[in-house]
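Teaching note: in complex prediction, the entire set of molecules is handled at once rather than each chain in isolation. The prompt given to students was simply: 'Predict the structure of this complex.' The entities are:
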Amino acid sequence: MQAEGVIIFDDIQGKIIFSEVPPEFATSRQTSVGGMLINLVKKFSHEFKAGDVKSLVISSEKKIISISKREHKYIIVLFPITTVIEHNMILQKTEEIFNSVINNG
Amino acid sequence: MSIIGLKRKLMDKMMPKEFGFISGLFHIGVFTLQTGIDETLGRIGYNDYIFPAVKESMEKAEKLGIEPMVGENVEEFGERFIKLLKTSLLVENASLKKKVDGAYVFSLNNCFMAKTAHTVAGTKGVCPMAMVMAAMIEKYVNKEVTVNYSDLTPNGSITIITPTDSNFERK
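The expected output is the structure of the full assembly:
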């Protein structure tokens, strides 16, 4: 399962700190939507007293978008849909990509 | 007294008191939207999404006669915009001063709207003129900026506008 793009949002700085996405998704406005989504989901979770958001998987028509949190950083990974994949596997792959980005950063 | 000063005095005398009410409503709308975006989508929504959107909408402002000023620096642009603000009689005076850390302090003094609006609309928000100024710096000087909440006083506003470079790895 090959990732199509990776964005990292730093919750403390409140901004995107890393972005590797195809050129057609690379404008500041496009990548910033990731940070906005995380803020909105956090707000949603807190409204329902669900605590911190640890992960999120968005299963869309053409892509799977996976979000994982580690300390104060969130990673957003775009996967193209190839076959039906378990959400747990997607999150596992997301974690692996997170490790790889952090270790190479 | 200059002609602009005289016009301004006349405006002060002639403007109906309802103007303050309308101006207050306008600011309530703007400030509520700003804080709503901040609370739900965070500052990133404000800085990286809304400002670029305002900047894109500036195309329409050019149709009103604001000439494109691409390539000039922040100070030169600021000078022109402040002249426009003063000629419009919205403010009596304004300034854009660079700080040691590279940020700019944009001050409006004796703003026609602020007199009543800031009292009615509260004290948390970015002055709409500072927001426009920041978006225009992005558009015409081609620098990304971040904007703090304004210090809103009964007579005007003080806003810190910080030009930034994209300081993250974008591949």
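Point out the following to students. Chain B has a mean pLDDT of 81. Residues 3-164 of chain B form a domain with the Muramoyl-pentapeptide Carboxypeptidase; domain 2 fold (CATH 3.30.1380).
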